[in-house]
Structure formats: structure tokens, C-alpha cells
């Protein structure tokens, strides 16, 4: 990892604050701000324009952001509505996704694919 630089953190903070304001200019667009923030993060990050590189500060911020995103998503689940046909569809979709992931993973392993160095640890 690189030495922490706060210029990348400044760009990330500007993108995070800009997302709700941009959506405020377009009230007809029914899009959660977090979706625009994720897209902006991809765009300015190493996979996009490369304006922000992952250092220890950005890594900690990314981990905290992921924890909050998953926590808030968990709060949105209405367990009393999750029964019957809806529960079967959700469970079936989850099992199908798991099955596809296992098949692709085993196929890659059988094909001799190795894990390459990535930007995450």
C-alpha cells in the first residue's frame, strides 16, 4: 500500500457530498444517492479514471462505507413480508447465485486460473 495522501480523500469526500446535490437538481430521477456515490467511486477510482489510488486512508473509508451500506440494507428488510412465494423466490435466487458462483469458481480452478495481484489485499 502507498503512503496515505489526503488529496485522494478530498476527491472522495467531494464526490460523496456532490451526489445528493446533483440528484436534488433532478427531482424526477428516483435514484438513491448511494447508487450515484457508488458509480462516482468506480469512476474516480483505479478501475475508472484513476484519480484516486487506494491507500490506507481510502481502504479504511471503503471498509466503513461497506459496513454502513450492508447495515442499512439489513434495516430495510421487512421480515414479516418475507414469506410464502416471495420467500421461495428469494431463496431460490440466492441458491441459484451460489450455485453459479461455485460452478464458475470450480471451472476456473480446473482451468488452471490463478489469483492475480489485485488492488485489494
What's the arrangement of secondary structure elements?
Elements (H helix, E strand, L loop, with lengths): L5 H19 L8 H12 L11 H20 L9 H26 L11
Helix pairs in contact: 1-2
Q: Name the beta content range.
A: under 5%
Q: Give the count of helical stretches.
A: 4
Distance N to C terminus: 9 Å
Q: Give the overall pLDDT as a whole number.
A: 81
Query: Major β-sheet, in short?
Result: none
N-to-C SSE string, H for helix and E for strand: HHHH
Total count of domains: 2
Q: Please mark out the parts with pLDDT under 50 across 5 or more consecutive residues, or reply none.
A: none
* Helical residues, percent: 55-70%
Please, what is the oligomeric state?
single chain
- Number of separate strands: 0
The rounded Rg comes to 19 Å
Structural class call reads: mainly alpha
Shape estimate: flat
Structural description of this entry:
This protein is mainly alpha-helical. The chain folds into two domains: 1-76, no CATH class; 79-121. The protein contains four helices and no strands. The protein has helices at residues 6-24, 33-44, 56-75, 85-110. α1 runs antiparallel to α2 (33-44). The longest helix is centred in the last third of the chain and has 26 residues, at 85-110. The N and C termini lie close together (9 Å).
Question: Keyphrases for this structure?
Answer:
121 residues; mainly alpha
Please summarize what this structure is:
By secondary structure, the protein is mainly α. The chain is 64% helix and 0% strand.
